[in-house]
Fold this protein.
Amino acid sequence: MTHDGCLKDTAIVIVTYDSAHEIGGCLEAALRTGAEILVIDNGSRDGTADVVRRFPVRLIENRENRGFAGAVNQGVKATTADYILLLNPDAVLLTGIGPLREACAQPGMGAAAGLLTDSAGIPQAGFTVRRLPTPVALSLEVLGLNRLFPSNPVNWRFRCLDCNLSGTAPVRVEQPAGALFLFRRECWEVLGGFDERFHPLWFEDVDFCARLRLSGKGVLLVPEVVAEHAGAHSILNMALEIRHLNWYGNLLRYAAKHFARSGRNLVCLSVFFGAILRLLGTFLGMNQGIRGGSVWVAVARLAARCFFGRPGWDGQRIVGAPAIK
């Protein structure tokens, strides 16, 4: 990877949580870009901060997990850079990031994203970029129909499986993954930052892209910029029950925030009946790794409360979801 030259107006913000095994390779590659680098550690317990201190980068250590959105906002406030690149600790840059900066600076653009690949260099189709979710797309997702019938036209469109990721020219997209995502500071300021109510993670990047689009700004995918991405390293340390509760809870939060009443109700009903089906599956021993059915009862309760306009969220966090520390 070649040096990007002068990127004094660009900062790379990396949010870590128990990322000791991944962060070294990420930082080694990121340092070659020449950009300012900030690591926001969300209360890791595996020595992540000790690894980070071996590198000439800025480190901010949180005593507890502030969530991904909270840590991102914290990182943006800690730098004066005009352009911010969010980079996951399990993403290793294989190219420079200059083209991202150039794409984001184009008139009418508010953000740009690069291409994510696996260890074999194959683009992570269905994850690198998606279209913004619709009520029908989320309903099929929570009912498990997208998994049973992955080629259905709604899922095909939602996951952008009709998009060609092997090209080289930038293309306009709706919702790229937050693992390699650059945005303008001025857009972040106008939007009020990332919504920290999506705690500890999930849907905060989708929400940001949806609000960015509503503001009239576009997003470009720049296939010229590539990072090898492992994926899902931090959530593996989260109990499966808490993982489900937070994912479904933040999905409901997104639906309540962005969909009209009919769309929100469709998602709520789908989550409710999907939870009931999974509860029955737990009793029949079909859901491996789930200890009892209490999590599905909690998810169904959240969906019911959201349906009736009383989502049951206490401040920034979902009631019943312990803080991940």
